[in-house]
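Field reference: sequence -> structure
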Amino acid sequence: MEEHSLAADWDALVALIQMQIKVGFVDGEVRIRYELPPEEVVGSAAARLRPILLEQEDWFHLTSSPL
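Structure field:
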């Protein structure tokens, strides 16, 4: 995970969890805007995390002993 592009810039990674939502009014309508990282970046990170998080995965990596 440390080699993933999201982990390379700590400030950018932290900014993702501190999402800023912008609300505005245009022609009597409410507009809500927020930035998301590119889908392929998030998908790549998810693919790397999946074996760590999901026990039923074939490649599950147990990081601590079960209780």
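Note: The longest helix spans residues 39-53.
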